[in-house]
Design a protein that fits this description.
about 350 residues, alpha+beta, Jelly Rolls, eight-stranded mixed beta sheet, four-stranded antiparallel beta sheet, binds 2-oxoglutaric acid, binds fe (ii) ion, metal-binding, DIOX_N
Length: about 350
């Protein structure tokens, strides 16, 4: 059976979910195979400390905190985002038990029978809903994962027909998580601006009053051949920045041509710069390439929230970062996420399209 499906076009393959193939004990069909190098991605470093910086956001918002300690945390943010393009945020004010609840409703959704999940299925060419990303261009591999993608903010953009009614707390949990994400994006956007000595509201102004939040719930089934597939292919995000949580390891971030594992930390959120923050900071903050490995033993979920400027709003490098010695590296762009998507489908980065 696996041989037959190897010759099917990606459109047909996409109508069958990875979870179904795993339940049928199928080997990954050819369009999913993207790795020949079979690097050894073992877990032997799982006990060692991760080099990805940790930032305590509570040190920024506490009015009791001595100014010097706040300043230290801001410097850590600047250093983290200009070298790694990401940090693990703790002290973000969301309780561990609520983060567990978000992970739990995600797991419960994906654990349902396929017929239940397909009630929320997207059409092959559409984006929002349950399934896989739209078919990439010829020659691009498919990801060994399933996902549910939902617009959550502005609230008038929600398509509640695609919001699962099972588990029955899903909607309420996602609404609450969205409120938390709004709060965290305000906190982080201001902190990033302050770390660069800019007006603290400058990034919030660029994102606009109708800035967007989109939630992507990823489910990574185990794979018998993790050496041949990827849960998600290497990419940078097209959003402004992304807030991510996972329940198991699997995500890796590229730095200096080396992959680094994002450690399992049930209390941390990964704040990951995307291309539009690289543009707004004139290249000071980096939008890192990241990918998700497959695992032969266990499944994994992640909940990813993309924070993106309002539709139709022009964004560009902050004036305060440009002077005679530091020319503008990027042009003003609008709806960059769409440009990014076009290149992503061809396996390419889009940032050059925004370069001066
Ligand atoms: O699952 C993850 O940890 C990463 C997901 C991701 O990179 C994305 O959805 O853009
Ligand atoms: Fe991503």
């Amino acid at each position: 059976m696996a041989e037959d499906s190897a010759h099917l076009p990606a459109e047909i393959l996409l109508s069958k979910r990875v979870q179904e193939m795993v339940l049928n004990d199928e080997e990954p069909p050819a369009p999913y195979k993207c790795r020949q190098d079979a690097e050894s991605e073992d877990d032997d470093d799982s006990l060692s400390a991760s080099p990805i910086p940790i930032i305590d956001l509570s040190r920024l918002s506490s009015s009791q905190e001595p100014a010097q300690e706040t300043e230290e945390e801001l410097q850590k943010i600047k250093l983290a985002l200009s070298s790694w393009g990401c940090f693990q945020a703790i002290g973000h004010g969301i309780s561990g038990s609520f983060l567990d609840k978000v992970r739990q409703v995600t797991r419960e959704f994906f654990a349902q029978p396929m017929d239940e999940k397909k009630k929320y299925a997207k059409a092959v060419l559409e984006f929002e809903g349950y399934g896989a990303d739209p078919v990439p261009e010829e020659g691009q591999s498919l990801d060994w994962s399933d996902r549910l993608f939902l617009n959550v903010q502005p609230a008038d953009q929600r398509n509640y027909k695609l919001w699962p009614s099972n588990p029955d707390s899903f909607r309420e949990v996602l609404e609450e998580y969205t409120e938390e994400m709004k709060r965290v994006t305000e906190l982080v956007s201001r902190a990033m601006a302050k770390s660069l000595n800019l007006d603290e509201d400058c990034f919030l102004r660029q994102f606009g009053e109708r800035s967007q939040l989109q939630a992507r719930f990823n489910y990574y089934s185990p794979c018998k051949r993790p050496d041949l597939v990827l849960g998600l292919k290497p990419h940078s995000d097209g959003s402004g920045y992304t807030i991510l949580m996972q329940d198991e390891v699997g995500l890796q971030v590229l730095k200096n041509d080396k992959w680094f594992k994002v450690p399992k930390n049930p209390h941390a959120l990964l704040i990951l710069m995307a291309d539009q923050m690289q543009i707004m900071t004139n290249g000071i903050f980096k939008s890192p390439v990241h990918r998700v490995l497959s695992n032969s033993e266990r499944d994994r979920i992640s909940v990813v929230v993309f924070y993106t400027p309002e539709v139709g709003k022009e964004i560009g490098p902050e004036d305060g970062l440009i002077d005679d010695k530091t020319p503008k590296l990027f042009k003003k762009v609008k709806d960059y996420a769409d440009i990014h998507w076009g290149y992503y489908q061809r396996g390419m980065s889009a940032l050059h399209a925004a370069q001066v």
